[in-house]
Amino acid sequence: MSTSSEPGGTASGRTATGTADASIAEGRAFPPREDGRIVGVGIDVAQISRLEGLLERTPALGERLFAPEERELSLASRAARVAAKEAVGKALGHPGDFSWQDVTVQRTAVRRPYLVLRGATLAAAEELGVTHLHLSLSHDGDIATAIVVAERAEPSPTANTEVPR
């Protein structure tokens, strides 16, 4: 598959003969979608040491925040999951309106994270026509972060397809 605007281009920016594509040198704009496929983007950060303190002071909080399979993870991984749960709410346009248990992070066989929704969170996603949730998790030092992109399979019939000038 060619990702270049030049015939025969590749994702690396080189043609089949190994020369650089002219379009790579010139650059290419990646404007946001205007067709309504992207329902929302959510991002959140969690301070790992703060979560640790909360869990030490209130042990029952772990049962409220995490599904049973999440409770045994490292502190940094649990903090990333808190950030993911918050980011889902933001991507769906309802931060704070969902049960913590409604959102869990699972991993594929190759350890790629994905989201499982239940309850009110699943109902909200389905009402919005969400068919894909893209998730990225990270932690470094004392900060864990998550980004969620909620996407529809088809463009929204009410989307603003006009690009603002």
UniProtKB/TrEMBL annotation:
<keyword id="KW-0479">Metal-binding</keyword>
<dbReference type="InterPro" id="IPR037143">
    <property type="entry name" value="4-PPantetheinyl_Trfase_dom_sf"/>
</dbReference>
<keyword id="KW-0276">Fatty acid metabolism</keyword>
<feature type="compositionally biased region" description="Low complexity">
    <location>
        <begin position="8"/>
        <end position="22"/>
    </location>
</feature>
<feature type="region of interest" description="Disordered">
    <location>
        <begin position="1"/>
        <end position="31"/>
    </location>
</feature>
<feature type="binding site">
    <location>
        <position position="86"/>
    </location>
    <ligand>
        <name>Mg(2+)</name>
    </ligand>
</feature>
<protein>
    <recommendedName>
        <fullName>Holo-[acyl-carrier-protein] synthase</fullName>
        <ecNumber>2.7.8.7</ecNumber>
    </recommendedName>
</protein>
<comment type="similarity">
    <text>Belongs to the P-Pant transferase superfamily. AcpS family.</text>
</comment>
<dbReference type="InterPro" id="IPR008278">
    <property type="entry name" value="4-PPantetheinyl_Trfase_dom"/>
</dbReference>
<keyword id="KW-0808">Transferase</keyword>
<keyword id="KW-0443">Lipid metabolism</keyword>
<dbReference type="InterPro" id="IPR002582">
    <property type="entry name" value="ACPS"/>
</dbReference>
<keyword id="KW-0275">Fatty acid biosynthesis</keyword>
<keyword id="KW-0460">Magnesium</keyword>
<keyword id="KW-0963">Cytoplasm</keyword>
<dbReference type="InterPro" id="IPR004568">
    <property type="entry name" value="Ppantetheine-prot_Trfase_dom"/>
</dbReference>
<dbReference type="GO" id="GO:0008897">
    <property type="term" value="F:holo-[acyl-carrier-protein] synthase activity"/>
</dbReference>
<comment type="function">
    <text>Transfers the 4'-phosphopantetheine moiety from coenzyme A to a Ser of acyl-carrier-protein.</text>
</comment>
<keyword id="KW-0444">Lipid biosynthesis</keyword>
<feature type="binding site">
    <location>
        <position position="44"/>
    </location>
    <ligand>
        <name>Mg(2+)</name>
    </ligand>
</feature>
<dbReference type="Pfam" id="PF01648">
    <property type="entry name" value="ACPS"/>
</dbReference>
<feature type="domain" description="4'-phosphopantetheinyl transferase">
    <location>
        <begin position="40"/>
        <end position="143"/>
    </location>
</feature>
